[in-house]
Amino acid sequence: MSGHDEREHLLQVTGLTKYFPIRKGIFSRVAGQVRAVDGVSFHVRKGETLGLVGESGCGKTTTGRCILRLIEPTSGSVRFEGQEVTTLGRDALRAMRRRMQIVFQDPYSSLNPRLTIGSMLAEPLEIHGLAKGAKARERIAELLTLVGLSPDHARRYPHEFSGGQRQRLGIARALAVEPQLVVLDEPVSALDVSIQAQIINLLQDLQKRIGLTYLFVAHDLSVVEHISDRVAVMYLGRIVEMADRDALYADPRHPYTKSLLSAVPVPDPDRRSRRIVLKGDVPSPARPPSGCHFHPRCFLAEQVGGLARCSAEDPALREVSPGHWVACHFA
Fold first, then answer.
1. What is the DSSP letter of 279?
2. How many domains does the chain divide into?
C-alpha cells in the first residue's frame, strides 16, 4: 500500500487490531468484543505528517496508543525503522520509546501537578541516561526556549500556566528524549482557535528544524488540511480512504469522506456548499454492520442500488488512482 520504497518508511503498520472484551455476569464471562481498531494498515515516511481523522469513537486515538504500546494491540504488525515493536521485551521497548513519543489531548491532566516543570522535564532525561545535574538544567532551558517559553518557567508548577502554555510543555516533554516520531493525539482540540494556530505553527516549525515525523490524530478537518502531507480517514475502526492531502480535499472518493468535508465551515458568506447529512447514528463497534460498515448510512449505495452488495460484501482498501486508496465498491 505504498508505491514508494519501503526503506523510506519510518513506521509501517499492517493489519493492526484492538478488541476490548465485553464481560457480563458474576463470573465476568466474555460476552462479546468491542472492535475499536479492526485491521488498520498504513505507513508514515520520514519527515512527513500523516493526519488520522474521523468522528469520535472511530478508533483513531486507540490506533495511536497501540502503535506506542501504551495499549497492547490484539494482533497485527507495527514496524519502526524495520524493527517489530509488538514483540519487544520490557527493556527493548523502553529504549524504543525514546524514539517514539506522544503529546496528549488534555494539556493539564497529562502533566503531574506535584512536579515543577524542571522536575517533569528532567525525569525522561534521567530515565534514558541522557543528562544529569548542570547538563540536565541546560537541556531543560533549551527545551523551554525551543517551545517558546522562558527558562525561568522551570521553577513553576503546571497550574500556573494557561492551556496553550501547558500544551507547549507537553510538546517540550515529548521532545526531551530527541524522538524521531511523535504521535499528536488531538493536541489542539482543547484550545481556543487563536491558540490552536500558534501550536500548529510551532509544530510545523519544530518539524522543519529537527526533522520530526508526525502522526497527527484529529477530528478537525480544517486543522488536518493545514498540517498534513497525507490524510487517512477512519470509520468504525477501519481506514476507508487515504491519499495525499491535496488530492483528498479536492476529490474525496469515499461517501463518508465527502460527508465529513461537506460539514467543514467555509469562511465566505457568498459561497454556499451542499451539506451532506448522514442518516442514523454511528453503529456500535461491538455490533458493526455486515459487509461495508458504512452501508446503513451511505447515500451512494442507495443512489446506485448497491445496498445488497454493500451489506453482504466487505470492500477492500484499493488504489483507485496513484496514491489514492479507497474502501468502497463504487468509488
1. P
2. 1
